[in-house]
Specification:
Structural class: alpha+beta
Number of strands: 11
Radius of gyration: 18 Å
Shape: globular
Strand order of the largest sheet: 6-9-8-7
Distance between the termini: 28 Å
GO molecular function: endonuclease activity
Protein name: Endonuclease I family protein
Bound molecules: calcium ion
Organism: Streptomyces coeruleoprunus
Pfam family, one: Endonuclease_1
Number of helices: 9
Keywords: Endonuclease, Hydrolase, Nuclease, Signal
Largest sheet: 4 strands, mixed
């Protein structure tokens, strides 16, 4: 059993310059990150994209921020569901072994060649459960790399379409995720990643283009409704597990190579609280 971790004092560090350096291509030179901002409570992060990509969002909050971000991130390329296999081999490559991908909930490093549907394979996990809105796998939310991750076939099946929440018993083969009858708790190292993926989906999909309006709520058992829970827990996870180099590189690769849009909550995790 795991127990909820108290909310941390919000103290966003500045992962930005490191993120820009990670991928030499897409990032313009980092704009001045003021010295001393690190450690400042509730300080907004500063990113290399604030004067360009996020220009229309800077300084906003609440629904105005959500709306501005929706406009910004909806300008994107889309890939087919079959192309997702190859893309995940790039976005989720093991930094210590270029032949492997890192599986989301288990943290296991597994050969890229073991993609497929059999026991021992990895497949394409929809972190925003596909059935929550029934959006299928044609190019759109069902193929959006910002919430697709490689996962062990068996673990993926155990997660199923459960909402995210604390609690349950340890899931075999993971380090260490938990589950009970109505929810799934990912391992600590990806709790924030999961939160930021779910909330990206909520901002990206607002009911246009024939897709459902995806939104977070504080429930479990959301079933086929276009909602995903639990928002209060996802907010805790966003603070508990801030973006790391792996998650930031992933965002850069999706932006630079595949979709040409970004997950704003990886760049600005404080925007979660600014909207919700
Ligand atoms: Ca539960
Ligand atoms: Ca993480
Ligand atoms: Ca939405």
């Amino acid at each position: 059993m795991s127990s909820p971790i108290p909310r941390f004092v919000r103290r966003w560090k500045i992962p930005v310059i490191a993120a820009a350096l990670l991928v030499g291509t897409a990032a313009p030179a980092a704009s001045a990150a003021p010295a001393g901002v690190e450690g400042a409570q509730t300080a907004a992060t500063v990113t290399a994209y604030d004067d360009t990509y996020y220009q229309g969002a800077i300084g906003k909050s609440g629904t105005a921020l959500k709306s501005a971000l929706h406009t910004i991130i909806s300008d994107q390329s889309k890939i087919s569901y079959s192309a997702v296999w190859e893309a995940l081999k790039v976005t989720d490559q093991d930094p210590n072994n270029t032949g492997n991908v890192i599986l989301l909930y288990s943290g296991v490093s597994r050969s890229k060649s073991l993609s497929g549907g059999n026991t021992g394979n990895w497949n394409r996990e929809h972190v925003w459960a596909q059935s929550h809105g029934d959006f299928g796998t044609s190019a759109g939310p069902g193929t959006d790399l910002h919430h697709l991750r490689p996962e062990d076939v068996t673990v993926n099946s155990i997660r199923g379409n459960k909402d995210f929440d604390w609690g349950g018993s340890a899931v075999s083969g993971t380090y260490t995720s938990y589950t009970d009858s109505n929810s799934f708790e990912p391992r600590n190292a990806v709790k924030g990643d999961v939160a930021r993926m779910i909330l990206y989906m909520a901002v990206r999909y607002e009911g246009g283009d024939g897709w459902p309006n995806l939104e977070p709520n504080d429930s479990v058992n959301n079933g086929s409704t276009p909602y995903h829970g639990r928002l209060s827990v996802l907010k805790q996870w966003n603070e508990q597990d801030p973006p790391d180099a792996f998650e930031q590189r992933r965002n850069e690769v999706i932006y630079g190579t595949y979709q040409h849009n970004r997950n704003p909550f990886i760049d600005h995790p404080e925007w979660v609280e600014a909207i919700w």
